Amino acid sequence: MAADPVFDDEALEAARKLFARETTFMMGAVRMDGLPAPDLPEVAFAGRSNVGKSSLINAVTGRKELARASNEPGRTREINFFVLDERIRLVDLPGYGFAKVSRTTARKFQNLGRDYLRGRPNLKRAYLLIDARHGLKTVDTEALDAFDTAAVSYQIVLTKADKIKPHEVEALVDKTLKQISKRPAAFPRVLATSSEKGTGIPELRAEIMAACAVEL
Ligand SMILES: Nc1nc2c(ncn2[C@@H]2O[C@H](COP(=O)(O)OP(=O)(O)O)[C@@H](O)[C@H]2O)c(=O)[nH]1
Ligand SMILES: [Mg+2]
């Protein structure tokens, strides 16, 4: 919802074409030593459970069932890897802020996510998803701290923008930009998306393409 479009029509069209190519589920990993070799650029999606990570991966790849297929019980606690056009890996990190699991169990998943973020040499950018109805919560702030500590470039993506009014989306983008302005690893753009309506999806594709420095 930025006033100046960051990507021109050509960049958006290139990204549309790239993401129209095949995306496949590669594998799930439960431990750091089970990760695929770091031989492709990766972007990772992080956020609280239910924030809309799987829906967003489905929306950018135009595949309704892709991430849901990996969303069976157990799978959401793994790191799931999807490969686009055999050139970019999209990484679905375990959700944090579980209400129903013990703190120890929750911490273990967070550690896997944190270890991944800390130690992944081919990670080009992490997307931290924030529910547009709620904005940044304390638990998200902890995730931001972890990103900043790990010096991983991350970008905030608001999800479910269709659930609030357009002027509220704009206000939340501005507020969130202010909240992250002093964070060293935060990318200075906030993207508002709706997987339901498709809002912001072309822009997110272009962001990913640019972050991975991939050309058509
Ligand atoms: N209205 C609306 N609902 C969404 C959107 N994205 C996700 N949801 C819903 O939010 C719930 C959680 O989504 P999911 O992608 O499974 O979240 P995850 O746990 O982060 O992977 C599901 O019921 C989705 O249908 C969106 O853009 N708009
Ligand atoms: Mg999910």
Automatic annotation (TrEMBL):
Mind telling me which Pfam families this protein's record contains?
A: MMR_HSR1 (PF01926)
| SUPFAM superfamilies reported in the protein's UniProt record | P-loop containing nucleoside triphosphate hydrolases (SSF52540)
Q: Does the keyword Mitochondrion apply?
A: no
Gene3D superfamilies, per database record: P-loop containing nucleotide triphosphate hydrolases
**Which cofactor(s) does the record list?**
Mg(2+)
Q: What domain of life is recorded for the organism?
A: Bacteria
Question: Oxidoreductase among the record's keywords?
Answer: no
A Gene Ontology term for the protein's cellular component: cytosol
Keywords in alphabetical order: Cell cycle, Cell division, GTP-binding, Magnesium, Metal-binding, Nucleotide-binding, Septation
HAMAP family per the UniProt record, alphabetical: GTPase_EngB
The protein's role, per its UniProt record = Necessary for normal cell division and for the maintenance of normal septation.
**Protein's name according to its UniProt entry:** Probable GTP-binding protein EngB
Per the UniProt record, the source organism is Phenylobacterium deserti
Write the gene name.
engB
